[in-house]
């Protein structure tokens, strides 16, 4: 670095003896260093002397520079800072474009888990920083960043090699100049580290030392970006015309001749003959050497661009020609040109393309695509996949920390690792993942996830239907109860003139049987898909028919009590409680329930409803009561009638055994109350269609209880023991007690 500074200072120093051969006049512009680090040093050294500087691959300047510095290979994006390096120019795109191109490259091939190597200088650090900034929004993670330099001790190189071996990455980006990378390449080759896809920066992708058959074992298939090759056909004759015997004082020609031919011309030999091989004069270079191939030039063409840029700037300064104007006349001597003038004209013409083309190599460097700005201001990356020869085989290398989560799973971050490293966890019930997105999405409320959790399927609609087993059983029980009740009704009608039927108040008994038939048929409205009409019908029918049924039982209970209390001296209650009063009690008690139901239907009627909370995989279709207060008022009123019946029947429990219907009613009311007391908690806690089933069971239990307790003993006497169906038999026990 000190040598670069000293050389730069020598070039720009102003001699006190103008025109002296030892001290030539200071330069106006400088085509200099290829490396970004060296360009930074030169630009920094020339800055205080106000020397404009132009380079081809990097851009470095001090604030008020007088000399132009042009670089042909310095690519560090830091050199584009015109506040620091206002007179730095280059004829190669900066690493800003290369970092963007590399980011496009890794994204194109799906590489999300890569390693990175940087040189311990501005070129490497700025390059990796720019690349990291580009890929951080693309979901690409950098597993490690190793730092190397050609002057590092071997121990540091081995640390980086060990880092590579221990890591799971299969793709590594090396943003390193060839000279800094070569020690690591040798160690990688020595330790037989293969199977890694290398991504190269432009500084080494086409360099000679990595492009050898020995290196191909570990680095074959490396892919990277380089500047476009250009042809300079006019340069060919110039190279072929080089002759050391015509240009006797050119050290460059002498060195060139020694390199091409293998000997030094006699005129240029300044050393002992036994040390340097002297040419005989008839030697000729091998013009088939790649050095003379001027059809595919990269760096040379960038030097050519730099020379011509400065030449055009000087021409415009000498002839006072403004950019885009015509040549008028010479207005300035060459010795009077200032670097500031050159810089101004360079700024007007220094517009270089950012088009860079990638190259993948297998000893030969094969173009496999290109990267360039598009017309809309974006960038295009075109890859010729059929030309790529990967280091890992025929298939595109995989570079992921974690495989893409399969459908039905989601990503779960692993603590302490980058976002590219994750576990795949199955989606929760009710959510799916049918893409490679990081999270699961929740299914719509009427849908549920399938077993694979990769699609939403319609939830099963659940209600108590006529076709399922439980529905069939309940329908059968309901129809059976209705048939048995109807048969009992037929028996009572047929034997209505017999003592036992007359004694049981035939009118109320027949009305009770009719109400029981309705009670048995009522559950049919509870089965099937709920609708608006079925919802209103099921609850009101249930309330009214049961109120009618219990009202009839209440009437029968009152008849029993009054009939036997009438035997007491001076008691004329039986005369006051005739058939009209009995029907009045039944109608009035039932009418109250009708009023409650009418108010219910007008204020807040039942309606069909879908429940999503009770079951994740099912939609429960229910008939919502609309108003819980109204529903429990209906139940409460029926319970009130039942309690009154129970109390009255309990008071008449000591009537004669042969006709003690009060005991039967007492037993029946106890069963009825027990059924409905247990119904409420069971109704509340039962899920889905089982709620309806519990309600139907309570209705059928109550109806069967009334039927069997009240009417089966009478039917037994009527049909099986007709000899007991006499007035004498029924009054026999009373006669004994009277005697």
From TrEMBL:
<dbReference type="InterPro" id="IPR000068">
    <property type="entry name" value="GPCR_3_Ca_sens_rcpt-rel"/>
</dbReference>
<dbReference type="GO" id="GO:0004930">
    <property type="term" value="F:G protein-coupled receptor activity"/>
</dbReference>
<dbReference type="InterPro" id="IPR038550">
    <property type="entry name" value="GPCR_3_9-Cys_sf"/>
</dbReference>
<dbReference type="Pfam" id="PF01094">
    <property type="entry name" value="ANF_receptor"/>
</dbReference>
<feature type="transmembrane region" description="Helical">
    <location>
        <begin position="540"/>
        <end position="564"/>
    </location>
</feature>
<feature type="transmembrane region" description="Helical">
    <location>
        <begin position="585"/>
        <end position="603"/>
    </location>
</feature>
<dbReference type="Pfam" id="PF00003">
    <property type="entry name" value="7tm_3"/>
</dbReference>
<feature type="transmembrane region" description="Helical">
    <location>
        <begin position="470"/>
        <end position="495"/>
    </location>
</feature>
<dbReference type="InterPro" id="IPR011500">
    <property type="entry name" value="GPCR_3_9-Cys_dom"/>
</dbReference>
<keyword id="KW-1133">Transmembrane helix</keyword>
<dbReference type="InterPro" id="IPR001828">
    <property type="entry name" value="ANF_lig-bd_rcpt"/>
</dbReference>
<dbReference type="Pfam" id="PF07562">
    <property type="entry name" value="NCD3G"/>
</dbReference>
<feature type="transmembrane region" description="Helical">
    <location>
        <begin position="664"/>
        <end position="684"/>
    </location>
</feature>
<protein>
    <recommendedName>
        <fullName>G-protein coupled receptors family 3 profile domain-containing protein</fullName>
    </recommendedName>
</protein>
<dbReference type="InterPro" id="IPR028082">
    <property type="entry name" value="Peripla_BP_I"/>
</dbReference>
<dbReference type="InterPro" id="IPR017978">
    <property type="entry name" value="GPCR_3_C"/>
</dbReference>
<feature type="transmembrane region" description="Helical">
    <location>
        <begin position="696"/>
        <end position="720"/>
    </location>
</feature>
<keyword id="KW-0732">Signal</keyword>
<keyword id="KW-0675">Receptor</keyword>
<keyword id="KW-0325">Glycoprotein</keyword>
<keyword id="KW-0472">Membrane</keyword>
<keyword id="KW-0807">Transducer</keyword>
<feature type="transmembrane region" description="Helical">
    <location>
        <begin position="507"/>
        <end position="528"/>
    </location>
</feature>
<keyword id="KW-1003">Cell membrane</keyword>
<feature type="domain" description="G-protein coupled receptors family 3 profile">
    <location>
        <begin position="470"/>
        <end position="734"/>
    </location>
</feature>
<dbReference type="GO" id="GO:0005886">
    <property type="term" value="C:plasma membrane"/>
</dbReference>
<keyword id="KW-0812">Transmembrane</keyword>
<comment type="similarity">
    <text>Belongs to the G-protein coupled receptor 3 family.</text>
</comment>
<dbReference type="InterPro" id="IPR000337">
    <property type="entry name" value="GPCR_3"/>
</dbReference>
<keyword id="KW-0297">G-protein coupled receptor</keyword>
<feature type="transmembrane region" description="Helical">
    <location>
        <begin position="630"/>
        <end position="652"/>
    </location>
</feature>
